[in-house]
Design a protein that fits this description.
Structural class: alpha+beta
Radius of gyration: 30 Å
Helix content: 25-40%
Order of helices and strands: HEEEEEEEEEHHEEEEE
Largest sheet: 12 strands, antiparallel
Mean pLDDT: 87
Oligomer: single chain
Number of domains: 2
Strand content: 35-45%
Strand order of the largest sheet: 1-2-5-6-7-8-9-10-11-12-13-14
Distance between the termini: 123 Å
Shape: globular
């Protein structure tokens, strides 16, 4: 009987220990969950912060905005996946849509080499599944400036093949390999039609002239309003070959 009693007591102790362990574990999990919930809604104030890159992401992990310096700037994002960019060398902002595709950005840069200098900045918005269709741009080369609002026509085909080929171009190791990939890129863009990036509208300043230019679907200027550097205003209409058909005054 004493033996049975000791066995019963031992079994009770072991069972009680399991319940205690489960209770402690449940409490710990609850504490962590509450802590995470609190952390998700926590707001932190900063007076000043230095960073090289900030990624703003959606709950599914897709990017929404990336703010970066030149060294840490992202490549090409498509469908939430990052591809390498063959030539991106600037810092700024990148914007993304619900699909995780890059849909525009804002950049600022300048370069100086010896006596030569260049500078540019832009705010660009991309067509869905395509490249930029609206832009506010500034470009300068050795003191020669152009700045204005630009509108492009883009093809209705997706840029996915071009994104993948751009990634391959960024990883090319030889000039022969780069040339072959560039040829495939050119062929992919040409498959969209004869004018895959037709400039339809420009309003701004080119050198000393204030200009408003409207073009047809092939990107050919057809109406030009201009005030030149001497203050002379003109209005011109042009035919398909670029010949001036009417001139005012």
């Amino acid at each position: 009987m004493a033996l049975l009693k000791r066995q019963a007591l031992g079994q009770f102790a072991r069972t009680s220990g399991v319940f205690v362990w489960l209770a402690v574990l449940s409490g710990a999990i609850g504490y962590v969950a509450l802590g995470q919930a609190a952390a998700e809604h926590k707001v932190t104030d900063f007076d000043e912060i230095n960073v090289h890159r900030i990624n703003i992401i959606e709950p599914d992990g897709k990017p929404r905005v990336i703010i970066s310096d030149r060294a840490r700037m992202a490549g090409l994002y498509w469908g939430g996946k990052e591809y390498r960019h063959p030539s991106r060398d600037t810092g700024g902002f990148l914007f993304f849509n619900d699909d995780g595709d890059e849909v525009g950005g804002m950049t600022f840069e300048n370069r100086r080499k010896g006596e030569h200098s260049s500078a540019s900045s832009g705010l660009l918005f991309d067509q869905y599944k395509q490249d930029q269709t609206l832009g506010l741009l500034y470009n300068e080369e050795d003191g020669k400036r152009q700045v204005g609002l630009t509108v492009w026509d883009r093809a209705n085909q997706s840029m996915q093949p071009v994104v993948e080929l751009s990634d391959a171009l960024a990883g090319a190791r030889t000039e022969e390999e780069r040339a072959a990939i560039r040829a495939r890129l050119d062929a992919a863009v040409k498959s969209w039609g004869p004018h895959p990036a037709a400039l339809r509208f420009f309003a701004g300043k080119t050198l000393d002239d204030a200009v408003v230019q409207l073009a047809d679907k092939e990107g050919r200027p057809r109406l030009l309003l201009k005030v030149d550097g001497s203050g002379n205003p003109t209005i011109e209409t042009l035919d398909e070959s670029g010949k001036v058909t009417h001139h005012l005054p």
